[in-house]
């Protein structure tokens, strides 16, 4: 670590290894994404060493891991700052990190070398790794909660952060049993997947976003706290019953078609509020030296969150449309856009604010950082467009015209997945590598002229 | 509203919505277990375990959820009968040469369990998903439109007609009505017997015995003999 960091509390430095692990796993996630995209184009590529299903499991799990580690690193950093106290235990934070890394390496090894899994997308890790993952998260919760209770400094940011973190941990427990009935299994699986990404993760993300807004704009705290509560309340009030858009076709009763459609149609509302809120704050920038790069990522996240989750999600959420698009690449286009916009960009924004300080400087020079931003953003946009076209073509040919799935996949979908692969290779991956380089070797920005 | 009041609204409202979801969950699961899904036998549960262990779901979708890399398995046993599925699962290359599905090296008992699981899945009440295609594929001028069974049984996954469908392992059927294939007959009577039980007529053929109703079988025969 650097000799003199510009953080207020020494224990905040423990955020650094979390971010470092997250940044490296992010690169790996993209590498696995490229491999499985290539398998659409060249189906026998690595077919025996890393079949598509285990490549996809790696891609999905690495994403979950790096985002969670990033959110945890940001949480340690901001909880110390917001409570104006040291983190309860730095060794415990290290234990938290190491347990999760061991679980992650264990899960990936099970896929690569054992070709075994627990078998549902995103939660493929076979026993005993889910137990270790749960343990790692519980260690994190203990550390954060003891810190918060000792300091007795609850505010809107720490409250919502803790609320979201407890929620996402409890939901993960639904992953532990083996369910005999597939419909029941998927019923609870959606409590994890949906109530994570359209519930608890959004709460955590909103808290971190609010923190970054305070830091960058010196916005009025009371006003910001009120906005935060309204946003997270609307996220859950629409999102909890909005889970119904996953219960249309899996064997659950027909009334979910109505409930799911109504509530999920309302889900974009808090996202619109969030974008308005963010850009209103942007106007209230304070005299404090502006961290431009963080602003780019934060604004990008707000917009990407709204378009990727809100617009792309809404486009396929009504049952009349979803019956055709369900189970096609349309879902993949929404998944990539939403995860990148809502979570990846936000975690990167947090890193661009926190990592320079953890390395002993105010902020990074912007030149290289903006390369990372534009390469990744344009790259992801191009990838999403290719996925969307693949999905629409696939929906039309297989669902509306009834062509054979494999004929469409090999003759039509593969062409658009080639572009997913190509844009990933020449735009997105270089962006991620520039980001990693910047993370490790970013230079301090020159001091601005005295205001 | 004050910050405190908004916080209370957030927490209180969340609790209310969670209670609503919990009530709907109790009702949904009760209905799922009372007829919307068939009874789960031990064999079906073991098959589901194999399905998960081999991570089938990250290539195939089932109930529309999964990898988008390989066909959806929700209604697979509508398209293929148990014997063919078992031979395919035991060694995909033998049942369908050239397929990119990797051999999962399954024990014989696992294969049987998996087939039972896939047959169980077919009977889940999915509110009509996947929907029937809206239109049939366009055909060359003067050609009849393929009957619903042609698409529903995924005949085009192995056979090609007028350049549409898979180029093998099954023969191109564009002219099956005028040119018999492989010394097999092409009369309506023979084709009807053939479709009813291909391995019975020609042991060792790759063509599976398809689960066909009499009406489906008739529609296919009428269609095929007209392909001159």
In summary, what is this structure?
The complex is a heterodimer of chains A (451) and B (228). Chain A has 451 residues and is mainly alpha-helical.
Q: Would you give an account of this structure?
A:
The complex is a heterodimer of chains A (451) and B (228). Chain A is mainly alpha-helical and 451 residues long. Among the domains of chain A are: 146 residues; 109 residues, no CATH class. The longest helix of chain A has 37 residues. Chain A starts with 14 loop residues before the first helix and ends in a 10-residue tail after the last helix. Chain B is 47% helix and 4% strand. In chain B, strand 1 and strand 2 form a beta hairpin. The longest helix of chain B is centred in the first third of the chain and has 34 residues.
Structural topology:
The complex is a heterodimer of chains A (451) and B (228).
Chain A: H1 15-41, H2 52-83, H3 90-114, H4 129-151, H5 156-172, H6 182-217, H7 221-242, H8 255-266, H9 268-283, H10 292-315, H11 319-325, H12 329-358, H13 366-400, H14 405-441
Chain B: H1 3-36, H2 42-53, E1 61-62, E2 65-66, H3 76-79, H4 82-90, H5 92-95, H6 108-122, H7 148-152, E3 160-161, E4 164-165, H8 188-196, H9 198-201, H10 214-225
Antiparallel strand pairs in B: 1-2, 3-4
Helix pairs in contact in B: 2-6, 4-6, 8-10
């Amino acid at each position: 670590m650097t000799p003199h960091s510009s953080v207020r509390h020494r224990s905040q430095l423990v955020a650094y290894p979390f971010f470092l692990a997250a940044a490296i796993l992010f690169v790996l996630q993209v590498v696995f994404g490229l491999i499985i995209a290539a398998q659409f184009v060249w189906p026998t590529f690595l077919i025996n060493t890393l079949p598509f299903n285990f490549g996809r499991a790696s891609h999905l799990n690495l994403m979950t891991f790096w985002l969670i580690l990033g959110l945890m690193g940001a949480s340690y950093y901001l909880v110390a700052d917001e409570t104006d106290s040291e983190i309860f235990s730095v060794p415990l934070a290290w234990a938290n990190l190491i347990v999760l890394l061991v679980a992650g390496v264990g899960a990936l090894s099970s896929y690569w070398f054992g070709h075994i899994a627990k078998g549902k997308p995103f939660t493929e890790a076979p026993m005993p790794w889910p137990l270790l993952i749960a343990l790692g998260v519980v260690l994190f919760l203990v550390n954060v909660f003891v810190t918060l209770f000792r300091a007795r400094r609850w505010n809107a940011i720490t409250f919502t952060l803790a609320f979201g973190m407890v929620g996402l941990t409890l939901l993960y427990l639904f992953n532990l049993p083996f369910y005999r009935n597939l419909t029941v299994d998927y019923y609870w699986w959606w409590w994890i997947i949906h109530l994570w990404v359209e519930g608890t993760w959004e709460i955590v993300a909103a808290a971190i976003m609010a923190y970054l807004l305070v830091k960058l704009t010196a916005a009025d705290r009371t006003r910001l706290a009120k906005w935060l509560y309204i946003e997270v309340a609307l996220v859950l009030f629409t999102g909890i019953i909005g889970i119904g858009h996953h219960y249309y076709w899996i064997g659950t009763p027909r009334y979910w078609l109505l409930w799911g459609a109504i509530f999920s149609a309302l889900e974009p509302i808090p996202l619109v509020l969030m974008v308005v809120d963010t850009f209103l704050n942007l106007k209230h920038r304070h005299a404090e030296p502006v961290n431009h790069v963080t602003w780019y990522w934060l604004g990008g996240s707000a917009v990407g969150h709204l378009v990727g989750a809100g617009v792309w999600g809404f486009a396929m959420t009504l049952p009349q449309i979803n019956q055709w698009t369900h189970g096609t690449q349309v879902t993949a286009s929404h998944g990539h856009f939403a995860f990148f916009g809502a979570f990846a960009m936000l975690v990167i924004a947090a890193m661009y604010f926190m990592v320079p300080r953890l390395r002993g400087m105010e902020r990074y020079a912007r030149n290289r950082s903006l390369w990372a931003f534009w390469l990744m953003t344009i790259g992801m946009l191009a990838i999403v467009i290719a996925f969307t076209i693949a999905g629409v073509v696939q929906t039309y040919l297989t669902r509306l015209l009834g062509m054979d799935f494999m004929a469409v996949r090999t003759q039509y979908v593969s062409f658009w997945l080639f572009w997913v692969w190509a844009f990933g290779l020449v735009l997105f991956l270089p962006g991620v590598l520039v980001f990693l380089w910047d993370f490790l070797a970013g230079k301090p920005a020159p001091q601005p002229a005295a205001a | 509203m004050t910050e405190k009041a908004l916080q209370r609204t957030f927490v209180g409202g969340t609790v209310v919505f969670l209670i609503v979801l919990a009530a709907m969950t109790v009702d949904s699961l009760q209905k799922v277990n009372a007829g919307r899904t068939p009874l789960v036998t031990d064999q079906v549960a073991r098959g589901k375990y194999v399905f998960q262990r081999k991570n089938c779901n990250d290539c195939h979708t089932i109930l529309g959820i999964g990898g988008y890399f390989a066909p959806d398995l929700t209604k697979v046993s509508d398209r293929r009968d148990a014997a063919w599925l078992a031979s395919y699962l035991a060694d995909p290359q033998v049942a369908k040469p050239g397929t990119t599905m990797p051999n999962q090296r399954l024990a014989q008992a696992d294969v049987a369990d998996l087939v039972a699981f896939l047959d169980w899945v077919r009977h889940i009440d999915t509110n009509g998903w996947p929907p029937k295609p809206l239109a049939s594929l366009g055909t060359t001028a003067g050609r009849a439109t393929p009957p619903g069974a042609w698409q529903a049984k995924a005949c085009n996954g192995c056979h090609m007609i007028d350049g549409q469908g898979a180029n093998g392992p099954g023969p191109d059927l564009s002219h099956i009505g005028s040119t018999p294939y492989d010394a097999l007959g092409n009369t309506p009577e023979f084709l009807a017997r053939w479709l009813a039980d291909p391995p019975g007529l020609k042991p060792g053929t790759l063509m599976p015995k398809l689960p066909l109703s009499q009406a489906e079988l008739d529609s296919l025969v009428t269609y095929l003999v007209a392909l001159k």
